[in-house]
TrEMBL record, chains A, B, C, D, E, F, G, H:
One Gene Ontology molecular-function label: phosphatidylcholine lysophospholipase activity
Signal peptide, first to last residue: none
Name of this protein: GDSL family lipase
InterPro entries: Ester_Hydrolysis_Enzymes, SGNH_hydro, SGNH_hydro_sf
PANTHER family: SGNH HYDROLASE-TYPE ESTERASE DOMAIN-CONTAINING PROTEIN, THIOESTERASE 1/PROTEASE 1/LYSOPHOSPHOLIPASE L1
Amino acid sequence: MKIEKGQKLLFIGDSITDCERARPIGEGLFGANGKGYVALVDALLQSVYPELGIRVVNMGISGNTVRDLKARWQSDVVDQKPDWLSVMIGINDVWRQFDTPFIPDGHVYIDEYEATMRELIFATKPTVKGLVLMTPFYIESNPDDAMRRAMDEYGTVVRRIAGEHGLLFVDTQKAFNQVLKELYSATLAWDRVHPTQTGHMVLARAFLKAVGFDWSRP
Amino acid sequence: MKIEKGQKLLFIGDSITDCERARPIGEGLFGANGKGYVALVDALLQSVYPELGIRVVNMGISGNTVRDLKARWQSDVVDQKPDWLSVMIGINDVWRQFDTPFIPDGHVYIDEYEATMRELIFATKPTVKGLVLMTPFYIESNPDDAMRRAMDEYGTVVRRIAGEHGLLFVDTQKAFNQVLKELYSATLAWDRVHPTQTGHMVLARAFLKAVGFDWSRP
Amino acid sequence: MKIEKGQKLLFIGDSITDCERARPIGEGLFGANGKGYVALVDALLQSVYPELGIRVVNMGISGNTVRDLKARWQSDVVDQKPDWLSVMIGINDVWRQFDTPFIPDGHVYIDEYEATMRELIFATKPTVKGLVLMTPFYIESNPDDAMRRAMDEYGTVVRRIAGEHGLLFVDTQKAFNQVLKELYSATLAWDRVHPTQTGHMVLARAFLKAVGFDWSRP
Amino acid sequence: MKIEKGQKLLFIGDSITDCERARPIGEGLFGANGKGYVALVDALLQSVYPELGIRVVNMGISGNTVRDLKARWQSDVVDQKPDWLSVMIGINDVWRQFDTPFIPDGHVYIDEYEATMRELIFATKPTVKGLVLMTPFYIESNPDDAMRRAMDEYGTVVRRIAGEHGLLFVDTQKAFNQVLKELYSATLAWDRVHPTQTGHMVLARAFLKAVGFDWSRP
Amino acid sequence: MKIEKGQKLLFIGDSITDCERARPIGEGLFGANGKGYVALVDALLQSVYPELGIRVVNMGISGNTVRDLKARWQSDVVDQKPDWLSVMIGINDVWRQFDTPFIPDGHVYIDEYEATMRELIFATKPTVKGLVLMTPFYIESNPDDAMRRAMDEYGTVVRRIAGEHGLLFVDTQKAFNQVLKELYSATLAWDRVHPTQTGHMVLARAFLKAVGFDWSRP
Amino acid sequence: MKIEKGQKLLFIGDSITDCERARPIGEGLFGANGKGYVALVDALLQSVYPELGIRVVNMGISGNTVRDLKARWQSDVVDQKPDWLSVMIGINDVWRQFDTPFIPDGHVYIDEYEATMRELIFATKPTVKGLVLMTPFYIESNPDDAMRRAMDEYGTVVRRIAGEHGLLFVDTQKAFNQVLKELYSATLAWDRVHPTQTGHMVLARAFLKAVGFDWSRP
Amino acid sequence: MKIEKGQKLLFIGDSITDCERARPIGEGLFGANGKGYVALVDALLQSVYPELGIRVVNMGISGNTVRDLKARWQSDVVDQKPDWLSVMIGINDVWRQFDTPFIPDGHVYIDEYEATMRELIFATKPTVKGLVLMTPFYIESNPDDAMRRAMDEYGTVVRRIAGEHGLLFVDTQKAFNQVLKELYSATLAWDRVHPTQTGHMVLARAFLKAVGFDWSRP
Amino acid sequence: MKIEKGQKLLFIGDSITDCERARPIGEGLFGANGKGYVALVDALLQSVYPELGIRVVNMGISGNTVRDLKARWQSDVVDQKPDWLSVMIGINDVWRQFDTPFIPDGHVYIDEYEATMRELIFATKPTVKGLVLMTPFYIESNPDDAMRRAMDEYGTVVRRIAGEHGLLFVDTQKAFNQVLKELYSATLAWDRVHPTQTGHMVLARAFLKAVGFDWSRP
């Protein structure tokens, strides 16, 4: 298990991360970590490794793109002084190109996406003990679907940056693809984006595998 | 224009038809026809052919399958004594097979679908002056998508029944396909089923073309 | 069809335009264009001309007079950089003279109306590719009704300005008059001002005729 | 003053009478008489003639026609054993013919109106000490307006029945006409039917004049 | 009738005046004058003297004492430029001494009351065409009741100031006393302060008598 | 202390007893005993005599008269099998005669009050171990006030019945009178009926004195 | 993994099971399985074993004791025809003895508990393919706490019955005890009964271990 | 009785004190003192000593620690100029160490607690006529429970400071312990912190004993 006793683990991202977390800081009792994969990661860490006392903080905000993350990076990441940081962003960067194609103001194209991600990761890496990059995803089994294809390209950017910096990498699309072999996408998310509890468990499990979590410990 | 002065035109179907219509009867002022294609058809008929005084009635109920239609056919169709009847059903019959595949109670397979449709149409045709069959649809451009393929098969059943009885036939899937050449499905419906106003206008226009509506009359 | 590929079409006006549009900018998914004629124009443009990708923006605000439009013209029109602009204002300018006759603060008399309209149109015309002026209206069939007569005079001002500048002109009163020959005003609007869906379709159709929209294209 | 000490005065009618009165019986404290002319009559009687202790009961129901009154006459009039009865009905009988002309189910034409009124009045007159008939009204100054003309005809029926039975008669249309000489209809009612407080005071004053109320007594 | 054509009549006071009036200015349609005596005065003036077009404005605020009136006199009275002004204040000045006797911060004793009233009236009288002073009241028939006795003393102050300046004077306590001979106080106000509609009509009638209103004009 | 270990103590009455108690049975956690004197008695018994485990049940219903108690006596008293019963009723029996004097249906005059009380007490006394009669009260210091005088007469009935049967008797009016020497009635209840927490403590203390409660035990 | 392809797994119990599940049947999309351990079991089964298509149904009802389960066993267990059944009941049976000790009606003592459990299990075992008994629990680390001690005795009953019938047995108290070594009870449940997400994950993991679930499968 | 005529008694603390008191100042009618022990103290003082007119003010704020008290001491204590001050704080200082052990930001350890208490009491003592220190408490009967043990230590700090300054001291833990001998903690507070009405009465009685309150005075 890579995360150590007493460390603070902060998740940043969009609505998949947010899931009705508490404001301004998503941590503590009464569902402060929201209802998504962050809450599941928290529950799994606390129940299986109660002696570690890992402090999970959720700073996701619905609708965010990487451009929005940059705007609030200082207050919502740097100032929080996390030991571990997990970043999952990009779904809205792509989605807006497909659901409101005539409103370019909301589109974040791949060059801006890559440059901003690099900038944020480069600046933050020295300050944290662990950094996890999770790809954006699209719960669609057809790799030739136009939006799935675009999302895969953004995922490739994430993989490349993780590789260059030697960061932990979570391929969420691959995790979903495995389930999509058995289940039609509508079972996991009516809009192919916002997962059911099952979909969030797919994300939580993919994250935890990357950090060496062991479910079967006594 | 095939619908004549003073005739009553009744729409029956599922949530695409329902769209928050008034209960128990969906007709009259204050949005009683709901917010979907039925309301658009009503507005187009009233504004372009005000002298005809066509009475539009919406009897859609969200979540319905053809099995549900059969159960309420007497009270919601026959007893209403429509001159014209339009039927669009089948989306939920198919969808439940894909979004809750482990709960077969909610699935209506194609044999039951065809038999029930035949039974209802056969019984009703002699009592009305006009009968329009609209196919179910799936706002997905990939014809090899599993759920789209199933929906196309249900649509083929509708086409066949319309052909056998010489009924007016509206191929809603074809109407959507034409738009999907230009727009990604997420622009028209986040869940590929419940359309935006644009999607409802596609349906209204397809219906009105079938009944000889002329937008450009003075 | 006069509006071209990728152009932005902005509507400004009062509650007839507003109709619960999104704030601060009325554009995008989830009914952001409101529930009135603007949403119908948007749905008709997107469904019949999906390849054009016309961007429809609704900036109506309920209760506005031309005096209010002037106060927010910079932020709500100029700064939005529309290619096409449609203006329909004047109903409240007249109505307040009739429903609260003892409160002159809210009355905008015809001289101020004309001067302000001229000022706004004169300043804006050079910056847009198309400009549509729609008259205010009153859904009352009696041309001798006091408020109808006043509204007609304001409409005449709009017609005159459109003529002088060679702008597209939409006579909404005339469009309603045609329907009022067949239907009593209460069918179209309980207060003779806020139309039902049918009334909004009358407005949408009148607008679209002016810009060369062709419903019957394949 | 015709109403005597301790008598019960019951008003029956439609939404103009109802005005959010208490259910099932509209009498007592806490606004139980609603917010319309009945409450004003009650307040004027109690404040000017406190020694009479007249018991005012409101049995109006919104949307009612004379057909609805007949259906509930036994429980809502006869069983209440009023000493005085005031009836004002007919607006919806006429209105439905004009706002939903294609739905004849809701129309109550003049023959049914007259016959039902006669039947109810004939049966009730012997059981009460006083009976007041108030005409329906339409707050429209143009006597040639189609709906105003129809309403006047229904009013004529009321006048005729009152005359034949020697009942107290209140010409509410005439009372409104006098005010409409000075004020445009929109000042009194946005939909020309549901009055403002001023409009309700016109009704209360017309009623009270008929029963001999004297405002200026010490 | 002392108030003339086109004049603005402003009422200032406490919760008896306020009664849910519109903010920030209590005038116009949709019950903007509240539900109390001000709305009744407005309805009576408009219905009986429609040709005068008197503009009624309600600036009451619940809980106010004369100390509060002074604090907002400039914005809520002077800046509104009324032709006529009616003032009814003092109930809370007295009531707080009786319902929260241990919290002297909220008590306004009679010296401060008189001095403040004098100051406000003296400054305002030259700027208006008519000024009406209404006493505070307590709906309690026993003149020896401690709070009634105190209220009577404040009323005496109002009478004295009115006499000295030759202002119109309305003795609301006397008006209520007349009704209290017939009705127990609980019929008019559960808390002996906030009147029912009947109690508000007592106030409206007392006010209107003072300004020469004639109910019986044709 | 007269109430013994494990006994059930049931209170029946009107809104003074009810005070938002739980339905259908007012006992248990989460404020089930309401917010009035019953809850205070319960809290005092549990905190001072925790070893007795007295079970307090609140069966008050707002608006009740003795006539209403009779109608529900079987289900709400007898079927509950209390060891101790406390009855406080009569306020509404009197109040309705004063706040709605023209609606005799709601008045319960003193003969009916006495006869019904006798009937209920006579039938119930043999079935319980203790019976407490509390007078109705009116928080008005003037014994010549009309409603206070009437309430005192009803209280005298209660005293007489208690005396005849040798029941515990609580003179709530006397308890309030003692406080009213120091405080004006508005401090204890705005409507002279529904007490503040202080007024409910007056009731709780008067009750507890009657049953031998000792606050100062260690 | 003991549960096989296509089998239906039904959970019955109290509020720990219920957790806002859908009514009348807790299964399907949109959080129909509630927010507790049942939803977590469902999400873990679907995400790790998507090919099995296990149908999870939640029939918990808040506040239930074993007496309540018996009353609805036919409709909520037998009629649902589960392949696997999991039962966790007893917390309220014990809790009511401690939080409302004076209201014995709600207490289910250990003899009734054991007899009823035996009766239900005996009748149901032959009809299902798998049966899991989960103990009730109390999130209190002190085994000498009075309520913890009682809960342990009820848990012993469950263990005994499971042993006698050879059923799968889940010792939830033991699972919580392991976490309570590291965390104070308030971290897991403010009232020591209703767990946080972490506490529900403790339950889900304990259940899944019993049925052979393997988190680490590829 | 130590508190004298006309003195102001202010309570400051956390949610136990707050209990939905009015903002910004908790005093006056309509439950302004909240629903907890402060309201009970107020009701007992007013009902038993009405002639003293003691002014009770509640300045508790939910969630507060002694650190929060310090931050608002000037505005919420000093500026209110109380004659008597009662302080009960410390529950949250301890609780956060146990319910969110991984979030040290919210923990107030015993050294900071003691230093801050000393600072506040030292500064305030000269300005008031009476000062009461109430210990924090934990409604748990086991003195070896980890959180109970910690709370006892904070209570010892309070006792020590009271002793050094010769202040009135209320041992709330001891008061609860006496009741806990008879009742299980869940009867008094589901979370062992927020008391039922019974628990608040325990607090009120403990406070009143300290100030010499005599329940049995006539």
